[in-house]
Specification:
This protein has 480 residues and is an alpha+beta fold. The protein has 16 helices and 15 strands. It holds the Pfam family TLD.
Length: 480
Amino acid sequence: MGVGPSQEEEVLADEGLFEEEELLALRACFRLLASVPESALPSSSFDGFPAVLPWPQLLNAMADAQFGLDKLTKWRGFVAVVARCCKTSRSERIRAFAQLYSTAGGETLDAMSVRELLVHSLTCARLGDAPTAEGATPLKWAAADALLGAECLTIDAWLTWANEQLPALGLVQAAFMLQFLCAIGRAAAAGRAAALQAARTDVVVCHAMRAVQEPLLHAASDAEHLLQPAAAWLLGLSIGPAVEAREWRCIYSSATHGLSMNRFVHHVANYGGPTLLLASTDEGEVFGAYVDTPLKPSDSFFGGRDCFLFHLAPTFHVFRTTNVSSNFCLFSPHTTGQLRGGHYMSEGADLLGFGGQKQRLRLGFEEDLNLLRWHNSCTSFEAHPNPEGRLKEGVRKVELLELYGCGGAEADMVQRELRERRAKDAAKAGKVDRAAMFGLGKGVLGDEGAQDKFILETAGVHTFYSSQLEPLPQEPPSTE
């Protein structure tokens, strides 16, 4: 049933989901996009919109019976679809957008649809800057894991994968869609004729958008790094929405600092925030771990429930913690610096690993970090739900190892201050306190050279009666 002009201002259930300013902006946007206020949105309404969302599919959804709407609903259909895509629960948002990309009557997603959905999401996070074909490679790895060789997957299967792997994904497109439509509405309400063009530069980078944007990566040097922006974005979505824009600093890179436990420990020391470890192997794989607590040497396992393991290539998959064991992270470098020999669990061995037990780590590093050992299951982290997604177990040679500090400017500042303090303490300790060495305090014997006088008198060279250097009295000549 159509809605007449007199009904346009009626209070809808969906309207209550929006803040007052958002609702006013959306009403102004609708009036601009509709040919006249009393009509539905024409098919040309979204012409010229940036290709960051499937606008034609959104337009069709606003008049689709699956939403319980009539083709002449106009404002009612517009606000209902915007509400469903932007204001519902995380799972519902992910489902709503997946249906816009789906094939076969909205029931399945093929490989191309999944990749397009992920590319559009990253483009939204970048406020319209689409990734290059090379830059989108990690997105292909993610799509490959979701499909695992199948031609397509159901919407429910996609929802399960996305909620587990990328829990913040549902916020990306939703935040951009709402902010872009509101920007159009604000420009139209302000009387700007080119409202669409104005909206392209007037999208408010709101709290929600900042939370899902790509982390700002600070490289260790000009050398090539393992972690690239698109991969960092995926990992950021896996961690979850950030309180503020993320800044990740490369604390350690084997390409710059050298591959050894000694160099690793030196650069990790005193960093007080969560960290992200990545390691590439000679077989073209990239493994990694996210540790939600500071990486400090310990003889026992540590870490919280937000830790996870992952492989980034050849497919992207995150392994969450289980409720069975809390053996999440082990960092126990050998204190003497002595290289171990024989088996990697031998006496005095350096230990860096995640999950499992000390004798069988799920992801462990051996031979002074030069070898990586991987197992597909443990009691601390989940296994891949599909056997086809499990990588070969065993040992690989480490090609490149990197550690990123994810604690932001505060954790960087703390590490810098502690390093400066250690340097000052070391410099101070390098100066020999001769007065303390001989049990003398400052000012003993009356002047700053007291320790020198004490040494001379002890050696029997001079006796000091004042601050002046005096010769010792001569013994009288013998009368014999």
